[in-house]
Amino acid sequence: MKEDPLALALRRGTGLVCLVFLMVGFLSFIATLALHSEWPAGFFILLAGAWGPFLGMIAHLNLTQVLSREEKAIWRKQLWVSPQSFFAAFTYLLSRDLRKATEQMSAK
Fold first, then answer.
1. Half-sphere exposure of 26 toward its Cβ, with a 13 Å CA cutoff?
2. pLDDT at position 106, please?
3. Which residue, 12, 21, 57, 108, is the most exposed by fewest CB within 10 angstroms?
4. pLDDT tens-digit profile of 37-53?
5. What are the contacts of 10-16 at 24+ separation with CB within 8 A?
6. pLDDT reported for residue 20
7. Cα distance between residue 45 and residue 47, in whole Å
């Protein structure tokens, strides 16, 4: 089944927003530490950037029918296995072709 353009835009948009949150959160967190400030916004932005990919991936896997059950199982297996899961979540969210990314993920 071909991915709906709206689902594709939401999936990729989620990945891009999370990347921006990671960068801004990291810089804000470092600035907070350097300035000895107690303003925790950088920490929370960093958390949003770190957990957002997982939440976006889980939501997209459960709410769309783009992938088969077997293909979804490959991605679900990657979720909590290792530190690779962080990169797998971004791969899922930012890939142009989910089926090709799934084939590459299953080959590992």
1. 7
2. 81
3. 108
4. 877 888 888 889 989 99
5. 10/60, 11/56, 11/60, 11/92, 11/93, 12/93, 12/94, 14/52, 14/53, 14/56, 14/60, 14/93, 15/53, 15/56, 15/90, 15/93, 15/94, 16/94
6. 94
7. 5
Check residue 49 and give left, alpha or beta (phi > 0: left; psi -120 to 50: alpha): alpha
From residue 75, alpha-carbon distances to 43, 44, 51, 62, 83 in Å are 28, 27, 16, 11, 14
- Tokens representing 45? 């932005």
**Helix ranges restricted to H, 3-107:** 5-34, 41-63, 69-79, 84-94, 98-107
Give me the pLDDT at residue 40, please: 83
- The C-alpha atoms of residue 93 and residue 10 are separated, in whole angstroms, by 9
- Tally of CA atoms within 13 A in the half-sphere of 14 that contains its CB: 23
Q: What is the length of the chain?
A: 108
**Token pair for 8:** 């594709």
Q: Is 38 exposed, middle or buried (0-12, 13-18, 19+ CB in 10 A)?
A: exposed
